[in-house]
Amino acid sequence: MHILFPVCDSLSDFNNGSVIVTPGISGNWSYDAIAEFSCITGYVLSHNGSLRCVQNGFGTANWNDTVPTCEIQDCNDLHQPTNGTIELNGTTYLSVVRYTCDLGFYLNGPEHRKCLPSGKWSATAPTCNAIRKRIINGISFKTIS
Questions:
Q1: Tens digits of per-residue pLDDT, 67-110?
Q2: Which of 1, 18, 3, 12 is nearest to 55 (CA)?
Q3: What's the sign of the alpha-carbon dihedral 37, 43, 44, 45?
Q4: Taking a C-beta distance cutoff of 8 angstroms, is the pair 56, 31 a contact?
Q5: Global confidence as pTM
Q6: Same domain for 68 and 110?
Q7: For the chain, how many structural domains are there in total?
Q8: Structural domain that includes position 118
């Protein structure tokens, strides 16, 4: 006697990541299979990365949750420095921000920062510090303070 177990839908299309399936009772997509999802660098799962193929009351099976998606990492939290400006091409993974200071100020820190896979910006945000003039023996010098 051969018993057939219900089968869940295939999970073969998974963008920006991968899925590894531990086979269930009678194969990859059958009852009690476990699907583990992971994302490529710079992307994060939208929710729980593990699904189980469960039998419902109608002799069929389905995954116990919706299939997650891999969303691009967003670094957010980017502020313009006092007495300066920022130019950026986005706030997601691999985006770059460029800092400049207003006239009379110099940049103290990196000119560029990049959005990292961790969701953090590289380096510490720079500041714009005032350039001060000093006059010694009638000669004007710009000093950085």
A1: 999 999 999 989 999 999 999 999 999 999 999 999 999 999 99
A2: 3
A3: negative
A4: no
A5: 0.77
A6: no
A7: 2
A8: 84-135
User: What letter does residue 11 receive in the DSSP assignment?
Assistant: -
**74, burial (CB in 10 Å: exposed 0-12, middle 13-18, buried 19+):** middle
Residues 25 and 61 in one domain: yes
Hey, what are 90's tokens? 């986005």
CB 106 within 8 A of CB 91: no
pLDDT tens for each residue of 116-129: 999 999 999 999 99
| CATH code for the domain of 120 | 2.10.70.10
Alpha carbon distances (Å) from 8 to 1, 22, 49, 50: 23, 13, 17, 14
Query: Could you tell me if 129 and 88 lie in one domain?
Result: yes
